[in-house]
Amino acid sequence: MSAAIAGPSGLTYGPTPNGRMYISLFIHRSTGARYHKSIWAAVITPNTEYQIFLAADQGNCTCNNGNFWGVLNQMGGVVGTRGERLCKFPSNSYPVNPWHGFPVSPMENPNDAPPSAFIENWIDTGVVTRTFGRRVQRYKV
Amino acid sequence: MITIKLFIPGDFEDAYLYMGWLHILTRNRSIRLYNLEDIADNIDSYLPESRPFATLLFARNDWLHSNPFKSLVKNKRILNYFKQIVGKLSPQIECNHNLLKGLYERDLPINTDIVLDWRYYCRRLFVGTDEGLYNIGFDWDEMLVEPAPQKRLEPQCISISTGFSTVNASCGKEGLFTSINEVGPISGSASRSFTQVTDQSLRSNWMFYDIVNYQSNTLASIFKTRRDKRDDGNGYGGYYITGIEDIPFSLEFLFQHLRDTYHIDESSIQYMFNSRRNIFIHTFEGNFFALGLHARDPRYQTLTFTKTYKGKGTRILSASPTRAGIVFETDDNVFLFANNEWIRLLESPVLTVRSYITSKRYQNMVTITTEEGVFIISLFDEKSL
Question: ipTM score here?
């Protein structure tokens, strides 16, 4: 993985094998503004954050809304400071801009939930365990 | 607190206790039906020294909490014998093939891979799926699932609640839909159809006769209902809902109370749920608040009490009430909170947890489904004797 380039908003990585650039934004880190922003857990370093995005990018883990989704591991390890276990990389309308992401909890905000069929595919292909997948589908994550 | 588990290994999605049967939804989308009395009788035969406790614990748990049983154990010899036998029972009994004879297996006649919730109500099965809500008839004499399901709602149905002749379907961003008149004969121009109550719902529950809708796990509002009492001489008694108010009550006054009294900010709330009379709030800091609401206050503005408890310091994913206490599902465990004590029931992430507080027979039982199988857990507070 090539080294990240530091900028005023965050650390930029990439390109991925699919040509996408990624930025780990400071506003989603403990050093950034907390107000209304979810914060990556301390164990999710910017490098780890990018690795999660890379896996989503390479696995084409995108839903029909154009969002990419990622997890730390099959069991849905904690990625956010409030116990979030799902990563959302919202649809990027302008390819010239780098992608970014943040931890989400569908049980806190139901708008941050991937479609059930998308999660079913994750279960079938072993990206997540059936238990974690069902929890996502039932908004218990 | 005595907790005895029955474990049935298998590749399952969910389990439900209803009308004397254990209903298991398999991964192959069939419903496997085991008669609880047969299972209990087989266990009692297998463990004759502890007969009839399998029957008391799993098939007729209501007898353990009945007045005749309580009168019986006032005799100290009988009480000591009871405690001796229960003490000898293994905390977990694994059901092998020999103990599970006499099952039925029926295909679930719905063409979907994703069952999000299911609930039996008044002898019918309601199934919430990613492709809508279905209503399936059951021939309880022949133990047959009727082959023609009725699709009642189009949007994805995440969870179902029932009561007072009403079925509530939570459809996420599509909203909360409710059908009244689901029980008994349809009178006049009433028809069994769902109408949208509000535009966002993850789950719902009853508070007195009103509906608490949870737009998220930390945001809720109450929809007051109108009701009437049915007594038509055909066996359909009790209250039934006749209408639902359009404008909900917000629970802002509860949050104000938490702010003023305990300095708790709304952003600290991790999970909310309710019982018939109380609202429960769990915070990220690991505190638990029970707030009692006054039955006669039409605007739910009067708190009858506030109690605080120490939580387990972990996220709550679901709360299922039993008469013995509340069963909490967390990320990695299932706990029973009873008598101000946290008792671990299972040390594992689970697929589903179900309790049956409105059931006469199963109000002290829980079914938990994991990827390894189904646990049926009988709860008994020996201090109640």
Answer: 0.93
Identify which of A83, A110, A131 has the shortest CB distance to residue B351: A131
Q: Would the pLDDT of A33 be above 60? A: no
B370–A120 C-beta distance less than 8 A: no
**Mutation test of the interface with chain B: which of A35, A72, A107, choosing the one with the most B Cβ atoms within 10 A?**
A107
Question: What's the Rg (C-alpha) of chain B?
Answer: 21
Closest residue by Cα to residue A90 from A79, A101, A98, A80:
A101
- Which of chain A's residues have a Cβ under 8 Å away from the Cβ of B156? 116
Q: What is the DSSP string of B64-91?
A: HTSHHHHHHTTSHHHHHHHHHHHHHS-S
pLDDT digits over B278-315, tens only?
999 999 988 888 888 877 776 777 777 677 777 767 89
pTM above 0.90, yes or no: yes
Nearest residue of B to residue A116 by CA position?
B130
Chain B residue numbers touching A107 (CB-CB < 8 A): 202, 216-217, 317
